[in-house]
Write a structure and sequence with these properties.
By secondary structure, the chain is mostly helical. Helix 1 runs antiparallel to helix 3.
Length: 77
């Protein structure tokens, strides 16, 4: 396994982490924030929606780049 393959695998792992983060419920995040900082302002639902979309798009980009990287690495000696 060369360095490019390792980088592609790392990208796929990071994409899986992003997808897992996108699946976290807003109530769970709000409860965590309340324990961590009780005086913080309430975060609107739209912020969670935008963040979920961002995580899914980033994961998709990482998966696409990893697939392209595996293709490049297959052509190397």
């Amino acid at each position: 396994m060369n360095a490019l393959d390792k980088l592609n695998v790392l990208g796929l792992i990071l994409a899986a982490v992003f997808l897992a983060m996108a699946c976290v419920k807003a109530d769970r995040v709000r409860a965590w924030r309340e324990r961590f900082n009780p005086g913080a302002e309430e975060v609107p639902d739209s912020a969670f929606t935008v963040t979920r979309i961002m995580f899914v798009v980033l994961a998709g980009m990482l998966i696409y780049m990893a697939i392209q990287g595996f293709g490049v690495s297959a052509g190397q000696p």
